[in-house]
Design a protein that fits this description.
CATH class of the largest domain: Alpha Beta
Number of strands: 9
Radius of gyration: 19 Å
Number of domains: 2
Number of helices: 2
Mean pLDDT: 93
CATH architecture of the largest domain: Roll
Strand content: 35-45%
Shape: elongated
Oligomer: single chain
């Protein structure tokens, strides 16, 4: 069976940055299972997996625009130190979760000058081209329940 919309795909992967540094991998873990065509993985990788079958391997180069998007300077904002808990020592590189109008978002402190804190709310991999090494382990039809919920259920069944 070839990978197409509404199939459950199980795969092992290694994700690298443009310098070859491993950012994530399923090595030593269970393979990743996702519902193809439902936005469960980045669009550029999903597009390159289309038509592949169990047992196939591929090297996928995904430009940032088809991964986590380009780095958006408008998502780098200035905030007042008073907007943060007083008992937290802020430092550049510190990550925290912020509540926004779009829901929870990971943010990184990129600078502190006086009472002004610069925060970047871009995804940490925004603007980064990605390289995936993928081994397709299995492709199967999704169950009606998986299609209704938009994600994979272990063994095809909803778990409590």
């Amino acid at each position: 069976m070839e990978i197409a919309a509404n199939n459950v795909v199980t795969m092992h992967y290694t994700l690298r940055d443009p310098d070859g540094e491993v950012l994530d991998s399923s090595e030593g873990r269970e393979p990743l299972a996702y519902l193809h065509g439902h936005g469960n993985i980045i669009p550029g990788l999903e597009k390159q997996l289309e038509g592949k079958s169990a047992g196939e391997s591929l090297e996928a180069h995904v430009p940032s625009a088809e991964a986590y998007g380009e780095h958006n300077p408008q998502r780098v904002v200035q905030a007042s130190r008073s907007q943060f808990p007083q008992d937290v020592e802020l430092k550049p590189g510190m990550r925290f979760q912020a509540e926004t109008q779009q829901g929870p978002q990971v943010a990184v402190v990129t600078g502190i000058e006086g009472d002004t804190v610069t925060v970047d709310t871009n995804h940490p991999l925004a603007g980064v081209d990605l390289k995936f090494a993928v081994d397709v382990v299995d492709v199967r039809e999704a169950t009606p329940q998986e299609l209704e919920h938009g994600h994979v259920h272990e063994g095809g069944e909803e778990q409590e």
